[in-house]
Amino acid sequence: MQADSRQFFEEVKQDAVKYAELKIELLKLGTYERTGKVISVLSYGIILTALTLFFLMMTFIALGFFLSDVFDSLAAGFAVVAGLWLLLIAGVILFRKKIRNYVLNFVIATLVANDKKRETKDETNTSGDSIG
Fold first, then answer.
1. Residue 107: is it exposed, middle or buried by C-beta count within 10 angstroms (0-12/13-18/19+)?
2. DSSP alpha helix (H) spans, 2-95
């Protein structure tokens, strides 16, 4: 009788250890998934930002040449463009808190939406419905 109970508790202990190991592994995989998604969103944002900056730079160079023709002075045309860049920089500095909050809220909303999407998917899997 005592040997049976000892064996039973040994099996329960092994099951509990295995359960804990699986839960840790699931937590790791969830962390990897979230990290990967955050990095992919950030990478996309960086690429889009770089392309936008190149577009803006080319647009402002073209504007500089256009204004040079209007003012009959290359220096005056590009000085106006430099002034526009300074206004843009001042605007970013002036609204830095709003920009930070916007980016933070966007990232949080994206992660929460991703969690809700995953929870909905998990509920569909556990409810017995087949996922096609």
1. middle
2. 2-71, 74-94
CA–CA separation, 19 and 3 (whole Å)? 24
- Whole-number Cα distances in Å, 90 to 61, 64, 96, 117: 20, 20, 10, 39
**pLDDT tens per residue, range 61-87:** 999 999 999 999 999 999 999 999 999
Note if the pTM is more than 0.90. no
CA distance 30 to 119: 12
Is residue 81 within 8 Å of residue 63, measured between CB atoms? Answer: yes
Taking residue 38's Cβ as centre, other Cβ atoms within 10 Å add up to 14
Give the side-chain half-sphere CA count within 13 A for 110. Answer: 14
Question: Is 64 within 8 Å of 81 (Cβ atoms)?
Answer: yes
Q: Amino acid letter at 63?
A: L
Q: Which residues contact 112 (CB under 8 A, 6 or more apart)?
A: none
